[in-house]
Backbone:
C-alpha cells in the first residue's frame, strides 16, 4: 500500500474536535470496484501496511505493520479511499473510547457524551460525515455499541464470515471485524466486500459442522456463505410475514426511555406485517460474567506478545514508577539483567489501567486452582447461551432487543467503576458468546440522543438481520 | 483472592483482595505495578470477582464445537523478510532481535 505523502485533513476543525482519528492519512485506490468514490475509515487495530497501527495504546505508538489485513486488501481491491485510522479503547478494551492512550473521542451528536466503544472513532467519523463508511471490530459489542450511541448502522458478522488476518488479537474466539454506514444498505455493501473465506484465517472455512460434504480425501466442503449471498440486496425493507422474537430478559434491564423507543419501533414493524413473539433466554443472566472471564483470559494470553523486544515500548527505555515503587525485583536498571523484569517494566509503561486490569484478572482466572471455578464455568455458560439462542430461533426468524440498555453517558462518568461499564454490555455480549450475526440500527431518539435497535440472527443469517434493520430505518 | 501457584479455589474469599495478592498475579502476568495501582486494583477486583461468583450457578452444558480442525499440506511460502521483521524492534544487532542479558 503506497500512502500519499501529505496526510489530508478532511473536514478541518470539526474533525479535530471529535478526536475520531489517531492517524489521518489518505490512500487512494485506483481499482474500479463497488466502493469506488467511497471514503472508508479503519479502526486502529486493523493492520495497514506502512501506516502506523496503534490499537489506541502507548505500547504501539510507533508500530508500523509490514503487511495489510485481509479486509484492507479487499477495501483497496473494491476501489475504496482510506481516510485514516480511527480512535478506540486501548486494544478494544472498553465501551466508551475513553481508555485510548490518544485521548477520548467525542460523540458528534452531543460532544459532552461518549461515542460508545470500543470502535468509537469509526462510528463518530461516519456519524459526522468524516467518512462514508468505516470498519470496526466487535468482541462483545464494540461495533454495535458505538453505532447505537452515534446514531449510525453497525453490523457484527457471524464468527467466521470475515477474515481476522491482520486484526490485532484481543479475544480471538469472540471477535469479528464489522462495517459501519449511515444506512443499512451502505453497511451491508461494505460487508459484501469484506466477507468471504481467507486461507490465512482458518476460522473462515465453512465446513463439516454445517453439513458440507467431505470430498474423497476427507476434506470438508469449504464453500463459504458469503459467496452465495448479496448482503446489500437484502436491505429491501420487505419484512412482511417475518417473525421477530423479543427476549424478555434483555428488555427488563433497559432504561425506560430506551424501552419506549424500542417499543415504538416494534409497533412500526407490526404495521409492516411482522409477527412479534416473546422468547426467553434464561442463560443470559450469566452472559456478562462468562463473556468477561473468557475475554480477559484470552487477553492475558494474546497480550503476552507485547514484550518490548520485537515491537513496542522497550523495557530498557521504560521508566514506569520509581526504583522503590518497582519493588525489590527491579534491582537492575535499564535493559541489562533478568528478561522477565525488563518485560514487566515494558508492560507497566506501555499498557493503560484497563488493559492491566484485564490481563491480571485473566491471568487470575486461568491460574492453578481457579481455572475450573471461572474459566470452565464460563465455557459452560457460553454453551448454554448458544443452546438458548438455538431454541429461540425455532420460534422466530430474528430476535430484537435495544442495542444498549442506556442512553450515551457523559464522558468521565464511569471510568473509575469498571464493573458498571461491564454491565452496559448485557445485550451485546450474548451474541459474541453464541458466534451469531447482529445489526444495530437507529430506532429513534430520546432527549435528543440516539437509541439503537439490535436484531440478532441465526449463524450466517446476515441477510435476515439486514432485512429487518432496513425496515426500521424507513 | 489467594492466587498462590498451588492455590485452592475452596479457600478463595472474593471479598478479600489485598494489594499483595494483586502484586502476585501481576508478577505472574509480568506487569509491574506501583503502590497506587495495586491498591486501586485490589478494591476493583473484589467487586468484579464477587460478580463473577454467580457463574457457580451455571450447570454443566455439553457443547458441540462449531469449528473442526482442517489440515492442509505444509508448503513453504514467502513470509516477512528479515528486514521487515526487524523494522519495529526497539533494538537489533546483526540481523537479530536484541533483548536484555539473560542472567
Residues:
Amino acid at each position: 500500500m503506497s500512502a500519499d505523502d501529505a496526510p489530508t485533513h478532511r473536514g478541518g476543525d470539526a474533525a479535530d474536535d471529535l478526536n475520531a482519528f489517531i492517524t489521518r492519512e489518505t490512500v487512494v485506490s485506483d481499482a474500479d470496484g463497488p466502493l469506488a468514490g467511497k471514503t472508508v475509515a479503519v479502526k486502529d487495530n486493523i493492520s495497514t501496511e506502512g501506516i502506523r497501527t496503534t490499537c489506541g495504546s502507548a505500547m504501539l505508538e510507533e508500530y508500523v505493520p509490514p503487511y495489510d489485513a485481509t479486509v484492507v486488501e479487499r477495501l483497496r481491491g473494491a476501489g475504496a479511499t482510506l481516510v485514516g485510522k480511527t480512535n478506540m479503547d486501548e486494544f478494544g478494551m472498553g465501551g466508551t473510547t475513553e481508555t485510548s492512550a490518544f485521548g477520548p473521542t467525542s460523540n458528534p451528536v452531543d460532544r459532552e457524551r461518549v461515542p460508545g466503544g470500543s470502535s468509537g472513532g469509526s462510528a463518530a467519523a461516519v456519524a459526522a460525515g468524516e467518512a462514508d463508511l468505516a470498519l470496526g471490530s466487535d468482541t462483545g459489542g464494540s461495533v454495535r455499541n458505538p453505532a447505537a450511541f452515534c446514531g449510525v448502522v453497525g453490523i457484527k458478522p457471524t464468527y467466521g464470515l470475515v477474515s481476522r488476518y491482520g486484526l490485532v488479537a484481543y479475544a480471538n474466539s469472540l471477535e469479528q471485524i464489522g462495517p459501519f454506514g449511515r444506512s443499512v444498505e451502505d453497511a451491508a455493501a461494505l460487508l459484501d466486500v469484506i466477507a468471504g473465506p481467507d486461507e490465512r484465517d482458518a476460522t473462515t472455512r465453512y465446513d463439516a459442522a454445517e453439513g458440507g460434504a467431505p470430498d474423497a480425501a476427507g476434506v470438508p466442503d469449504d464453500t463459504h456463505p458469503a459467496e452465495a449471498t448479496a448482503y446489500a440486496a437484502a436491505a429491501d425493507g420487505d419484512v412482511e410475514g417475518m417473525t421477530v422474537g423479543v427476549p424478555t430478559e434483555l428488555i427488563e434491564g433497559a432504561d425506560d426511555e430506551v424501552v419506549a423507543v424500542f417499543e415504538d419501533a416494534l409497533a412500526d414493524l407490526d404495521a409492516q406485517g411482522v409477527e412479534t413473539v416473546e422468547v426467553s433466554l434464561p442463560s443470559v443472566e450469566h452472559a456478562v460474567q462468562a463473556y468477561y472471564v473468557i475475554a480477559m483470559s484470552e487477553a492475558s494470553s494474546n497480550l503476552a506478545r507485547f514484550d518490548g523486544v520485537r515491537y513496542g515500548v522497550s523495557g530498557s527505555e521504560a521508566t514506569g514508577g520509581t526504583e522503590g515503587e518497582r519493588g525489590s525485583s527491579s534491582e537492575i536498571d535499564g535493559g541489562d539483567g533478568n528478561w522477565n523484569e525488563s518485560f514487566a517494566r515494558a508492560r507497566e509503561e506501555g499498557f493503560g489501567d484497563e488493559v492491566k486490569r484485564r490481563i491480571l484478572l485473566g491471568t487470575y482466572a486461568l491460574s492453578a486452582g481457579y481455572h475450573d471455578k471461572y474459566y470452565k464455568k464460563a465455557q459452560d455458560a457460553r454453551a448454554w447461551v448458544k443452546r438458548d439462542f438455538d431454541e429461540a430461533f425455532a420460534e422466530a426468524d430474528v430476535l430484537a432487543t435495544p442495542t444498549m440498555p442506556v442512553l450515551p453517558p457523559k464522558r468521565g462518568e464511569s471510568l473509575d467503576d469498571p464493573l458498571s461499564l461491564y454491565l452496559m454490555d448485557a445485550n451485546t455480549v450474548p451474541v459474541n458468546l453464541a458466534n451469531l450475526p447482529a445489526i444495530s440500527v437507529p430506532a429513534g431518539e430520546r432527549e435528543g440522543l440516539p437509541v439503537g435497535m439490535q436484531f440478532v440472527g441465526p449463524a450466517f443469517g446476515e441477510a435476515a438481520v439486514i432485512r429487518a434493520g432496513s425496515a426500521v430505518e424507513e | 483472592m489467594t492466587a498462590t501457584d498451588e492455590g485452592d479455589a475452596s479457600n478463595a474469599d472474593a471479598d478479600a483482595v489485598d494489594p499483595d495478592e494483586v502484586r502476585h498475579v501481576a508478577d505472574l502476568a509480568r506487569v509491574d505495578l506501583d503502590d497506587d495501582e495495586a491498591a486501586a486494583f485490589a478494591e476493583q477486583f473484589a467487586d468484579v470477582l464477587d460478580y463473577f461468583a454467580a457463574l457457580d450457578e451455571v450447570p454443566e452444558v455439553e457443547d458441540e464445537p462449531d469449528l473442526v480442525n482442517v489440515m492442509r499440506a505444509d508448503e513453504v511460502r514467502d513470509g516477512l523478510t528479515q528486514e521487515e521483521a526487524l523494522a519495529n524492534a526497539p533494538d537489533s544487532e546483526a540481523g537479530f532481535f536484541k533483548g536484555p542479558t539473560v542472567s
